[in-house]
TrEMBL record:
It comes from the Bacteria. GO terms for molecular function: oxidoreductase activity. It comes from Sphingomonas glacialis. This is Aldo/keto reductase. PANTHER family: NADH-SPECIFIC METHYLGLYOXAL REDUCTASE-RELATED, OXIDOREDUCTASE YDHF. GO terms for cellular component: cytosol.
Length: 302
């Protein structure tokens, strides 16, 4: 039975013209460490072959304060480490406005971009994504705003996170530039991108898929119910055969989809970041890949 082979070669970020690593590192929990500690985490990601780094203005917010802290920390590190920014594809997001909670109006988003650039201490980000859809923003206004970001030279490519299929299609239809990315939650425990057609839409339109929470919010590392235990067991069959961690096997399962999904690794542990490179040791066959899917579904495929 043929094996599904993963390679570390760079790939296009949709139709943006930007080349990225097949796996990304995320900064959801990046705030709260020292610049030296943060720099060590980034260095570990570089060493593991990561070039795509994902942050957001909301990262660092604890419910009452900390909005922008992850971006500010990264900005401090950029200042202290000349040349680091040039080594990465930098992605950030905006549009969440606690406690409102969302605003994708033109004035708000343009201001949010300026604030992100100031905190990051950069003049441009490579990818800017709407973090969550604002139901009260017309997609025409959102499209014009994203285009303005690109024509200003402050953003190279645009995307969306947590959009429904219909919201994604409406925005893409009104854009005169490519929608480079979509960023859904996707893991062996969160199969909606497979079942709702998002991955099919991404393949049809050549949109890159960035998967957040690829380890199921930690549930695959420490299963607490029958479903996650069954999925973990199916993943361990492949992980043990390759001599890698369950996390590496999970990333590989996500990456094996023909949409060439890019998992966003969220660990803030240097050793676990180092495991990213192990994904290329993992070999799924159709049988073992579907074994994980069947375990996740909790029933046989038709």
């Amino acid at each position: 039975m043929s094996e599904i082979t993963l390679t570390p070669e760079m790939r296009p970020l949709g139709k943006s013209g930007i080349m990225v690593s097949p796996i990304a590192w995320g900064m959801w929990r990046f705030a709260g460490v020292t610049p030296a500690e943060g720099s060590a985490l980034i260095a570990a990601a570089f060493a593991a072959g990561v070039t795509l780094f994902d942050t957001a203005d909301i990262y660092g917010f604890n419910g009452s304060g900390g909005f922008g802290d992850a971006e500010s920390l990264l900005g401090q590190i950029f200042t202290a480490t000349p040349g680091m920014r040039d080594r990465m594809v930098l992605a950030t997001k905006g549009g969440i406005t606690p406690p409102v909670p969302y605003d994708s109006g033109r004035d708000y988003l343009m201001g949010a971009l300026e604030s992100s650039l100031k905190r990051l201490q950069v003049e441009q980000v490579d990818l800017y994504q709407i973090h969550r859809p604002d139901i009260l923003a017309h997609p025409q206004e959102v499209a014009r705003t994203l285009e303005e970001m690109v024509t200003s030279g402050k953003v190279r490519a645009v995307g969306v996170s947590n959009y429904t299929i219909a919201q994604t299609q409406a925005l893409a239809a009104l854009l005169t530039i490519p929608l480079a990315t979509v960023q859904p939650e996707f893991s062996p425990l969160e199969l909606e991108p497979i079942t709702n057609g998002l991955l099919d839409l991404a393949m049809e339109r050549d949109v890159a898929v960035l998967a957040w929470s690829p380890l199921g919010g930690g549930r695959l590392g420490a299963p607490e119910d029958a479903r996650s235990t069954a999925v973990a067991a199916a993943l361990d069959v492949v992980a043990n055969a390759a001599g890698v961690s369950r996390a590496a096997a999970t990333y590989a399962w996500i990456m094996a989809h023909p949409a060439r999904v890019i998992p966003i690794v969220g660990t803030q542990n240097v050793a676990r970041i180092g495991e990213i490179a192990d994904v290329y040791k993992v070999k799924f066959t159709r049988q073992t890949w579907y074994d994980v899917l069947v375990a996740a579904r909790g029933e046989k495929l038709p």
